[in-house]
């Protein structure tokens, strides 16, 4: 009987150890299969796209509705997005809807942020495209401390105001482990940040 218990304990420890390693891995697929719309959401083809997009979304300069005023406009992608959690569940939908609104030309989105472009749907009014992905935006909130602001039907989502890019890069390094070097992580993040 003791031998069986010992083996069970070993199996439990092995499974727990493997689980801890598995949760460090970066998820590249944030799509959901909706019976009505099919497979929708953000899917990254590789780590470079994931990290570059994270760098882009981490720079407050890209947000059209930024809670701070920047006295500079540096690149085409300045003021090009907003991110929201919409209270669709209040209207009877199954859940809140998390969206990125994109306000500039789609061809630029396609050339620089392919994963966002591939996940887009038509926008309305001055919104060129809407990118729906509850799981990805919740991932940004939960794993990278993006902030949800407001109490209205539509809440804004922003990167942390005093963003610590080193903390994000360290989190990425720990999640990615040895798949790519830290220099490659930094380069991909900066490629997105500097858009």
UniProtKB/TrEMBL annotation:
This is Uncharacterized protein. It comes from Fusobacterium pseudoperiodonticum.
């Amino acid at each position: 009987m003791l031998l069986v218990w010992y083996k069970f304990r070993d199996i439990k420890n092995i499974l727990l150890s493997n689980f801890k390693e598995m949760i460090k891995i970066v998820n590249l697929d944030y799509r959901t299969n909706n019976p009505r719309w099919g497979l929708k959401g953000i899917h990254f083809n590789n780590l470079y796209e994931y990290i570059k997009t994270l760098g882009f979304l981490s720079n407050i300069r890209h947000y059209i509705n930024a809670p701070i005023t920047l006295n500079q406009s540096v690149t085409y992608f300045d003021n090009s997005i907003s991110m929201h959690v919409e209270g669709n569940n209040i209207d009877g939908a199954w859940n809140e809807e998390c969206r990125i609104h994109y306000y500039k030309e789609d061809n630029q989105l396609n050339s620089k942020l392919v994963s966002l472009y591939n996940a887009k749907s038509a926008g309305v009014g001055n919104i060129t495209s809407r990118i729906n992905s509850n799981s990805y935006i919740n991932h940004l909130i939960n794993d990278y401390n993006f902030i949800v602001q407001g109490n209205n039907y539509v809440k804004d989502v922003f990167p942390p105001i005093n963003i610590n890019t080193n903390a994000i890069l360290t989190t990425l390094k720990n999640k990615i482990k040895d798949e790519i070097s830290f220099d490659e992580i930094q380069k991909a993040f900066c490629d997105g940040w500097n858009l």
